[in-house]
Amino acid sequence: MSTSAPADSQVISLVAADDGQIANINLYSGHAELTRTFNALVNQGENRIDIHALPVSLVDDSLRIEGHGWATIRDVVVDKDDTDRISRLTTEAEATITALKHHWRELDLEISTEKQARASLEKYLGTVKTDHIDLAALRGILEEHRRLSKEIDVRTLDLEKQRAEVDKKIKKEKEKLTLNNAKQLSRKVSINVLAEREGELTFSIKYLVQGANWTPTYELQANTQKKEKPLAMTYKALITQSTYEAYAKISLETAAPSLSMTPPSIHPWRLWVRNFDNATTAPQYPGMLAGMSMPFIPPSGAFPVIPGYVPSRSDSTGSLRRRSRTPPPPMRHLQVTASDKKGVMATFQVPGRVSLPSDMRQHNITIAQLDLDAEFSWYCMPQHDERVYIKAKIKNTSEYRFIPGQTKTYVDGSFASTGSIASVSPQETFEFSLGVDPAIKVTYHPFERKVAQSGLYSKTVNQTLTQRISIHNTRSTPITNFKVTDSTPVSEDQRIEVRLVSPALTVPTATVGTEKSGSSILKLKAKLSANDSVKVAPNVRAQWNGLGEPDVDQKALGKDGMVTWFVSLAAQERVTLVLQYEVSYAEGLAVEGV
Questions:
Q1: Among residues 204, 210, 211, which one has the least CA distance to residue 189?
Q2: How far apart are CA 194 and CA 192, in angstroms?
Q3: Which of 68, 256, 459, 551 is the most exposed place for a label (fewest CB within 10 A)?
Q4: Cβ pair 173, 100 in contact under 8 A
Q5: CA distances from 307 to 262, 263, 267, 295, 353 (A)
Q6: Which strands sit side by side in the sheet containing 45-54, from one edge to the other?
Q7: Contact yes or no for 212/99 (Cβ under 8 A)
């Protein structure tokens, strides 16, 4: 839709990239919110300010205008830019490229001419017969040859330099024509302003554009020998943008947005008695399907529209096609909720000034560099994998929220692994796997088996199985909190008995009691036996896997046959763990799995 200014109003034409400065960019996932500031000299009374060359990716209903001074914004219209202007800009750009190409050809011809002159000079020198020329004349010929050669060479070098510069200009203009195609910058904003007096007006426009995106990425540097803040994290934003607007030296904020979301509503859950004599008399309620015996309950992920809710629009910005003669109330800032999947604010101010061309390439921008508290632990399940993994229990002591993203991990200066970080709030503690620690060597030896029989009349087969696990710390520093887990067989038949010999762990006994709370909820308390943890060596303790862990049923310890050792190793120390158990069953019984 085109707009026309009143006959007595002034029309001011501005170009977004030339006349407007980008004050700030809020970068979201798939969108960017730009703030551009302008200055315009207005007359007293009616003025129309046209801002040209805005991108086609502009989201029309996101436009907001903010101004300061003695003027009132009466109307705002977003429309297609003038067709003649777009054609003229495209023609001018193509004409510039054509002229540069013509100039490049002229320089190329001049270079060819100079090279031909240089070749002719060399050819002439080759025709000189030194037998019939005295030395004085020969000296004159050589000096003249040297002078002319130098002149030709200097001109040739200068022409080649000019040609190279023109070549760069051609490439630059082609890139400019491609990236800043006038057809891609074909939106226009018209602002009708009523000024109380003549003077300069300062205002800003805010708008969303599509084609910009960012994802968080992390780099973790773990120093297992450092006592305080042993984990260094570099928090980065991986940014791409193809909005056809170049962002040069701008202030940048990144956020994980929650756009176009409607909060859920809950529906009544109704009960009734079915009349079996007349099944059609059951009451029908909204959300209930005909013939259903239970009401229809919408899924938890559904987002129904709240009845009676009608979204309103601020009068300050004006409808795209509405004309208002009443001065609008003070304009409000655009509020965009930035949150991750947990719905918590996650906005970051990128330090310094950032330049982001519209080239669809990935740009790594550092958000923050953090030193975090961490506790390291090692774990291994050698029955399946003899490699030792290192894990960090990290506390996010920063003010930043970690949004899910990919990570690169380095341990003690060496690359360890790639992975991903989940959502983490400030002051929240989380666990993160740092990869394999090759300095800890674990050997899972073949198990030893001894078979014996007992009993005079009814024979019983007794198998004693011994599993040895050797560990060697090849580090130059000690390690603590090394968790090794292995398993014994679990009997699924009462005729098969499995007894753990070493380590000497006993299955915990539980005394069940009740505790009455204000909500009348009964709680079970388990009192574990004294032999929950066994010291098998000065630096090794053994226990049932899951002992003391809040998410493990303590009354079920040992029923899965899982045994865990906690080992501390000095530098270059070796230790051997022994798991021994007996399997007994009647002779002639076919036992599988042993």
A1: 204
A2: 7
A3: 551
A4: yes
A5: 12, 12, 11, 19, 46
A6: 10-15, 45-54, 187-195, 71-80
A7: no
pLDDT digits (tens, 9 = 90+) for 444-486: 999 899 988 876 677 889 999 999 999 999 999 999 999 999 9
pLDDT digits (tens, 9 = 90+) for 257-309: 444 445 565 666 766 666 655 544 444 444 433 333 333 333 333 333 323 33
Instruction: Please tell me the distance from the alpha carbon of residue 590 to that of residue 493, in angstroms, as a whole number.
Output: 12
Place of tokens 């240089």: 118
Q: Is 104 helix (H, G, I), strand (E, B) or coil?
A: helix
Provide the whole-model pTM.
0.59
**Residues making up the chain, counted from first to last:** 594
Of the candidates 156, 155, 127, which has an alpha carbon nearest to the alpha carbon of residue 141? 127
* Cis peptide bond upstream of 503, omega within 30: yes
Residue spans of the domains in the chain: they are 86-179, 271-304, 441-586
Q: Kindly give, in sequence order, each residue whose CB lies less than 8 Å from that of residue 561, ignoring residues fewer than 6 positions away.
A: 487, 488, 489, 490, 498
At 510, list the tokens.
Answer: 């539980």
- Assign 38 to helix, strand or coil: strand
Please report the sign of the dihedral spanned by the C-alpha atoms of residue 529, residue 533, residue 536, residue 538.
Answer: negative
**At which residue do the structure tokens 């979201």 appear?**
28
Which pair of structure tokens corresponds to residue 3?
Answer: 């707009």
